[in-house]
């Protein structure tokens, strides 16, 4: 009888280990819900293109994603200190960032644009921002771009709507922001436009720690599958 009890105990332990091995992987995700249409708050819920893409990746991989909203410039430090396991936030895969994190394949191509007032026809290139007060989002690509323009006076904001308000009130001369969020912010404005200025394209990618190669491979495979089966295009059409 004792041997039988031991046998059942061993089988139970083995079953528990088997079930645990197939338990859903939970990944903590850092984002910044100030970047419509990629991630933004709607009725106190984080929604957007990136969130729908994550949900689709979850269905493909079986990974459960739990999202945390935080300041953009705190995302990569949070990744490095293991407060989150993954970052998706309309983040550009720059060579500087690639030194410290591992990026997925690009999932979206965007560009930097200049928002200004409708009566401002002086901007023909990004170099024309020299000598002007230019609003940027702290840590965004626009921050880097404007910081490299000689003579530009950089005004950093934690949220895009604050920069839009400053521009509307004449406190700054222009804003440099990613193209899609810029379109959203000026859509209902009678006073603001996107200047007709050539800009370089940039690729958004998902970031993980350098050691998480298996995770990024799963994500890359899932995104490839979503593009092949048409799900990616459905998400794209929903937001753009």
Can you describe what's shown?
The chain has 240 residues and is an alpha/beta fold. 39% of the residues lie in helices and 25% in strands. The protein contains nine helices and 14 strands. The strands form three sheets. Strands 8, 9, 10, 11, 12 and 13 form a six-stranded mixed sheet that branches. A five-stranded mixed sheet has the order 5-1-6-14-7. Helix 2 (49-61) packs across helix 8 and helix 2 (49-61) packs antiparallel against helix 9. It is globular. Residues 4-22 have low confidence and may be disordered.
What is the helix content?
25-40%
User: In percent, how much strand structure appears in the residues?
Assistant: 25-35%
State the total count of DSSP E strands. 14
Quote the average pLDDT: 90
In DSSP terms, counting alpha (H) and pi (I) runs of 4 or more, how many helices?
Answer: 9
Poorly predicted runs: 4-22
Q: What is the overall shape?
A: globular
First-last Cα distance? 68 Å
Cα-atom radius of gyration: 22 Å
Order of helices and strands: HEEEEHEHEHEEEHEHEHEEEHH
Which structural class is indicated by helix and strand composition? alpha/beta
Major β-sheet annotation = 6 strands, mixed
Gist of the model:
The chain has 240 residues and is α/β, with parallel strands linked by helices. The protein has helices spanning 2-21, 49-61, 75-80, 95-98, 141-147, 160-168, 179-186, 213-229, 231-239; strands at residues 26-31, 34-35, 39-42, 45-47, 64-69, 86-87, 101-103, 108-117, 133-137, 153-157, 174-178, 192-194, 201-204, 207-209.
């Amino acid at each position: 009888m004792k041997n039988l009890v031991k046998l059942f105990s061993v089988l139970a332990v083995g079953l528990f280990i088997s079930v645990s091995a197939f338990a859903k992987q939970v990944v903590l995700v850092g984002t910044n819900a100030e970047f419509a249409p990629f991630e933004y708050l709607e009725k106190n819920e984080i929604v957007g293109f990136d969130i729908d893409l994550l949900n689709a990746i979850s269905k493909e991989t079986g990974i459960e994603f739990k999202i945390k909203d935080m300041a953009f410039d705190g995302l990569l430090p949070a990744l490095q200190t293991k407060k989150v396991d993954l970052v998706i936030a309309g983040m550009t895969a720059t060579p500087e960032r690639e030194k410290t994190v591992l990026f997925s394949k690009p999932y979206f191509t965007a560009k930097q644009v200049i928002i200004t007032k409708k009566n401002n026809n002086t901007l023909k290139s990004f170099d024309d921002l020299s000598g002007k007060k230019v609003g940027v989002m702290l840590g965004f690509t626009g921050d880097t771009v404007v910081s490299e323009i000689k003579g530009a006076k950089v005004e950093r904001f934690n949220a895009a709507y604050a920069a839009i308000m400053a521009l509307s009130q004449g406190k700054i001369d222009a804003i440099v922001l990613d193209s899609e969020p810029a379109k959203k912010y000026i859509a209902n404005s009678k006073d603001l436009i996107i200047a007709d200025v050539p800009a370089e394209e940039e690729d958004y990618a998902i970031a993980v720690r350098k050691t998480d190669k298996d995770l990024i491979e799963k994500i890359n495979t899932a995104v490839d599958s979503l593009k092949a089966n048409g799900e990616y295009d459905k998400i794209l059409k929903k937001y753009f």
